[in-house]
Design brief:
Helices cover about 20% and strands about 25% of the residues. By secondary structure, it is an alpha+beta fold. The strands form 2 sheets. Strands 1, 2, 3, 4, 5, 10 and 11 form a 7-stranded antiparallel sheet that branches. The chain has a 4-stranded antiparallel sheet with strand order 6-7-9-8, with helices on one face. Strand 3 and strand 4 form a beta hairpin. The termini are far apart.
């Protein structure tokens, strides 16, 4: 089983990652490329991942239904299934750049291949990701700091508690993008048209109102520079299920490494309303 050690990081000057097809990107990840996926495969939707044993699957499905802003379900694979319509000819165990494995709620590994952890009772939830609407923001002339700065998107646990479901509970996680103050209304308008991938922001401005005390220390991802005249804007984030795993402590759960997404065969435009 690969553990990501020594994996080659894809550099922008090696290939135009935006021009790759999802199948080409997944093949690179299967081969060992480890990198955040913001900006990859322009025009195609990216997705979060949470995989749990069948015994917890109903609770997770109910948790997602009760918290659709942070956990918009794009697809579910039956127990033991490793591929489906969103990744034709793909393999959910190998085709993300990096994963996170939890045992009893504790992170135990960040492998690039989860075949060694796979069981036939595992159910995969594919959850909408805000990377999907970033191309639309860029087309609207709105800069994306983590893409421009070559980092992972910053993500934060908040003091807002999600609606619990059965054995599953946990805090809302948000991603943050600093937006020029004059363009915040445009960012809200553009992203509101993508409800299946988190939609409009959940908060604009003062991070302390979300219980976030230091933007330079995200819980997941990397900090970004916030220029003068820019406002922090927060979107619900699909890492929320992993925060729920850490809180609820199921025996086993597997997610994507934050920012290292499943690139699906679905077009961004298919989630536009």
């Amino acid at each position: 089983m690969k553990d990501g050690t020594g994996s080659r990081r894809m550099l922008a000057d090696e290939v135009s990652t935006a021009a790759l097809s999802p199948a080409e990107a997944r093949l690179l990840f299967r081969g060992g490329v480890v990198t955040p996926t913001a900006g990859w495969c322009a025009g195609y939707a990216q997705a979060n991942l949470i995989i749990v044993p069948k015994a917890q699957a109903f609770d997770f499905l109910l948790f997602a239904q009760r918290n659709p802003k942070s956990c918009p379900i794009l697809g579910v694979l039956d127990a033991g299934e490793t591929s489906g319509p969103l990744l034709a000819d793909g393999d959910i165990r190998t085709d993300l750049p990096q994963y996170t494995v939890y045992v009893d709620g504790e992170k135990v590994a960040e492998p690039t291949d989860i075949s060694g952890y796979w069981r036939q009772d595992l159910v995969t939830f594919i959850v909408g990701c805000s990377f999907t609407f970033e191309a639309a923001l860029q087309e609207g002339g709105i800069p994306i700091a983590h893409i421009d700065q070559g980092t992972n998107v910053p993500m934060y646990r908040t003091s807002i508690w999600c609606q619990p479901a059965g054995s599953i509970s946990g805090p809302l996680v948000v991603s943050m993008r600093p937006i020029p103050a004059s363009q915040v209304p445009d960012a809200v308008r553009i992203t509101s048209r993508y409800p299946a991938v988190h939609g409009a922001p959940v908060h604009v401005g003062n991070p302390e109102e979300l219980g976030i005390t230091d933007l330079s220390r995200p819980d997941f991802g990397d900090p970004v520079q916030i220029q003068e005249g820019y406002v922090p804007v927060f979107w619900a984030c699909g890492v929320t299920p992993q925060a729920a795993v850490m809180e609820s402590r199921p025996a086993l759960a597997i997610g994507h490494a934050p920012g290292h997404m499943l690139i699906t065969d679905a077009r961004d435009s298919s989630y536009l309303v």
